[in-house]
Amino acid sequence: MRTVHGTGQHSPRTAHPSATTRRAAGIVAALAAAALLGSAALPAAYAQGPGHGRHHPRPHPQVSTATYTPSDENIANPQRGFYHHTETHYRADGSGYTPLDQATLAGYRAEGITQILRVFYLEKFAGTPQLDQAFLDLVQADYDTARAAGVSVITRFAYAQGGEWPYSPPYGDAPVSTVLAHIDQLGPLLRANADVVPVVQNGFVGLWGEGYYTDHFVADPADPGVVTDADWANRSAVTQALLDELPESRAVQVRTMLSKQRLLGVPSGAGSAVGPGEAWTGETIARVGHHNDCLLASPDDFGTFLSDPITLDQEYLEAESRYVPVGGETCAVNAPRSEWASASAELARYHYSYLNRDYNQDVLNSWGQEGIAETARRLGYRFVLESSSVSARGSAPTVSVTVRNDGWAAPYTPRPATLVLTRADGTEVTVPFGSDARTWQPGTTTTLTAALADVPAGTYTLALGLPSADAGTSGDPRFAIRTANVGTWDATRGVNVLEGTVTVG
Hints:
The protein contains 11 helices and 19 strands. It is α/β, with parallel strands linked by helices and 505 residues long. An 8-stranded parallel sheet has the order 6-5-4-11-10-9-8-7. A 6-stranded mixed sheet has the order 1-15-14-17-19-18, with no helix packed on it. Strands 2-16-13-12-3 form a 5-stranded antiparallel sheet, with no helix packed on it.
């Protein structure tokens, strides 16, 4: 395989004059000329009146262009869409662990679902800093099973679940020193399996790992709504420890916007959000996202939006979510806010990449079949091929591809775009477009261009590749991105086939 280089450019969608508009403008110009010079100035087709040999401008013989038909299908693309919830336990006697099942995960893919949330409950270890190797081996086996099934694992660790309401201490989570010791032991596992771990939720603190009902991260467990500066420092230490253990390409999601603001020492409001100049830099601000596990449940989503006024956190998340991962679940009916009109507006505003398909069913059912279908299509990115062109002008051919994003978000892990050229003898050449699909924002159109100056001579078929950037899954077509088009996907190779050929040399 050979690699050469290209360029990519993206822009907001703009309206282009239609062929009818351009033709009408030409007629007006011709008629204006005729008024001055007589009918001899008219092209023959116009002089003879309507219906006589309409003028069709010939395409430039050195440029060929193809257009593509969009599809309404729910595409089983990686790291986006609905997810299924899974959880497992490791109790004091070592019982409670239910391994992932490959056939079950493969069935999820058949539904169009390519990811799960996996909550690992560490009951046995809440009182000790040392994790069992047997437990670590079980987690590794789960990641291996997910990889074999072509499924990603949104990961969270926690120590305790809530029982019957009302909840009261002791809740069962671990002190900060123990949590940090566990993160240190889990780090190598998370790094080794980052190819199937797109994001890690902060977890560890409180019931379900959601940060509220906790024995150790508030001054008074009976009054968990009061969090002191020292408590915030401990919470931030957990988040930072996770960031330190993960590759720079992976983010940690926190449960409230305030958690990130306290970590960074910034106020709420759009001005504190990560922006395009900081996105994907590896800095802390660029690597902390958000999960809202009570989406639409109340005016502040049961304590998710904590700023005063609430609009500050809302504006903060709207700005942040263009560049960091956002996901979550619904948890309570709260009509009319939890109904489809409001839900779809918020999913779009906050650029949701994923949502729990299993909970809350009453909320999800209120969206109707059409609402669920649209959510399945538009969570995360949804790339649609618009056109491609091959130009023989100049010293070397160039290939351009135009793609738009009809989803609610962009990808949140690295996603290189490549031109894949295949010769009749099987020779394959990959030409990077020099563009990362993370930059293809929702509602924008991106034009990619690659020059073929360094490509060996021959005639090649063309394809757009959007493979995984991770070594463990880069060659697996199930982890490549498929565009939402009719008749373009090559499932064996994991590429989007373009029309036409290009001849080099």
